[in-house]
Amino acid sequence: VALLRIEGGAYTPLPLRLEPVALTEEVYAVGSPLDPSLAGTVTRGIVSQIQQNEHSQPLIQADATIQPGNSGGPLLDARGNVVGISQSGLTDDGSHLVGINFFVPIADALRRLNIQVQ
Asked: In the prediction, which pLDDT does 23 show?
């Protein structure tokens, strides 16, 4: 996870939801899969599990489709609040995605960056 500072402009940030998502909650992954011309692609899915990675950090498991290039894009709840950040998807043999995707909860990403939201 990285934090970027953007100079100038009148950008409106997406609202953050620091409370955890619930199992079966509907979520939306936004990203730019495979090619910049596909920027703003949105897919819908549900949260199927909250688990931990090999470093004991929590991950949201959902079937909202992500592709190479989506990593770092927001995971939104039904109200448009950021609840996570796209991390990775599972493949069957290293090339075909199987619809199981993982997202870092936004509260955990902020905590790792030592950022406090008020």
From this structure: 96
Size of the chain, expressed as the number of residues it contains = 118
Residue 38: what are its φ and ψ, rounded to 5°? -100, 15
Cβ contacts of 1 within 8 Å, gap of 6 or more: 72, 85, 104, 109, 112, 113
Judged by phi (left if over 0) then psi (alpha if -120 to 50, else beta), residue 26 lies in beta
Could you read off the pLDDT of 28-51 as tens digits, one per residue?
999 887 777 878 889 899 999 998
State the Cα–Cα distance between residues 37 and 65, nearest whole angstrom: 18
3-state secondary structure 36-70: HHHCCEEEEEEEEEEEECCCCCEEEEECCCCCCCC
